[in-house]
């Protein structure tokens, strides 16, 4: 019987939360804080989570820590009905091992991080994702696309070989390119997730996206849910009201090539007493003068 992945597709057409990975004073993963933040997301109405995403500092975690984050997430949400999209990546054997680990624990999907190798050919991109997707045919697979050079035809080629490639986290900051890419790959063939979060969600939804990722959701789940509800109903003025509400917060995250993307989220959480502000290099904590601005923004949201 052919797997249709309808449950996974539905889960992607939503707010796809990227939880932070909080650190304890000694620098290790703070498991208690991590679980508390996951419960807060679930209690806030979030039903799709991505452990080991970029907001979770994927590339700063050790292999053992990535496994721990996956295990803690799946264990915490096991009885809550949430969908889990586990981030995997690095070399092919590492990504395959991570995907199989996620499958063994009961995850429904994996997100494959954009390869960071300095030399990525388009055919090589297909080969990389094919090797991972073929290793876990029972799981839905979601490529995370940040490469503006990749052609939509390559994604279609990948899905021809691997029907478990069911969605795309598209994170190229160009709505026109997204619209063309999605149509070249097959607009109705995949679930399109706006991978640059709330700031790009309205423009990407207008071109065919039905879900968006979010780091902001760690701080204010209701804000993210307000945006997707507006977008689902086609109420773009209402969606842009949310956009205006979060604009400064997201500008701070995006400044200087997104240098403080995770830092700003953790600073907001720290201001609310939810976790420490600690991040790992190459990220760095905010200077004192910017901390107050982030705290004021978070305090102004209905949390």
Automatic annotation (TrEMBL):
Alphabetical UniProt keywords: Lyase
Signal peptide: none
SUPFAM superfamilies: Aldolase
Active site: 144 (proton donor/acceptor), 169 (schiff-base intermediate with substrate)
Binding site for pyruvate: 55
Keyword GTP-binding assigned: no
Gene3D superfamilies reported for this sequence: Aldolase class I (3.20.20.70)
InterPro entries: Aldolase_TIM, DapA-like
Pfam families hit by this protein: DHDPS (PF00701)
GO MF annotations, alphabetized: 4-hydroxy-tetrahydrodipicolinate synthase activity
Family: Belongs to the DapA family.
Protein name (database record): Dihydrodipicolinate synthase family protein
Originating organism: Streptomyces muensis
């Amino acid at each position: 019987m052919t797997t249709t992945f309808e449950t996974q597709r539905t889960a992607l057409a939503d707010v796809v939360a990227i939880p932070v990975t909080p650190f304890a004073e000694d620098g290790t993963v703070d498991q208690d804080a991590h679980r508390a933040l996951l419960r807060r997301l679930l209690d806030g109405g979030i039903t799709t989570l991505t452990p080991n995403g970029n907001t979770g500092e994927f590339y700063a975690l050790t292999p053992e820590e990535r496994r721990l984050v996956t295990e803690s997430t799946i264990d915490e949400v096991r009885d809550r009905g949430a969908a889990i999209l586990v981030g995997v990546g690095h070399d092919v054997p590492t990504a395959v091992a991570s995907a199989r680990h996620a499958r063994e624990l009961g995850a429904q999907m994996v997100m494959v991080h954009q390869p960071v190798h300095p030399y990525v050919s388009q055919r090589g991109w297909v080969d990389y994702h094919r090797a991972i997707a073929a290793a876990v045919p029972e799981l839905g697979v979601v490529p995370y696309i940040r490469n503006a050079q990749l052609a939509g035809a390559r994604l279609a080629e990948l899905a021809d070989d691997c029907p478990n490639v069911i969605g795309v986290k598209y994170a190229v900051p160009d709505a026109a390119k997204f619209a063309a890419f999605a149509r070249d790959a097959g607009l109705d063939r995949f679930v399109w997730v706006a991978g640059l979060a709330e700031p790009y969600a309205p423009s990407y939804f207008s071109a065919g996206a039905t879900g968006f990722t979010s780091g902001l959701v760690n701080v204010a789940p209701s804000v993210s849910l307000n945006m997707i509800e507006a977008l689902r109903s086609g109420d773009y003025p209402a969606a842009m009201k949310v956009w205006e509400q979060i604009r400064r917060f997201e500008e701070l995250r995006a400044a200087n090539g997104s240098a403080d993307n995770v830092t700003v989220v953790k600073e907001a959480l720290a201001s609310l007493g939810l976790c420490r502000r600690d991040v790992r290099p190459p990220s760095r904590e905010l200077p004192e003068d910017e901390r107050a601005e982030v705290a004021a923004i978070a305090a102004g949201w209905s949390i």
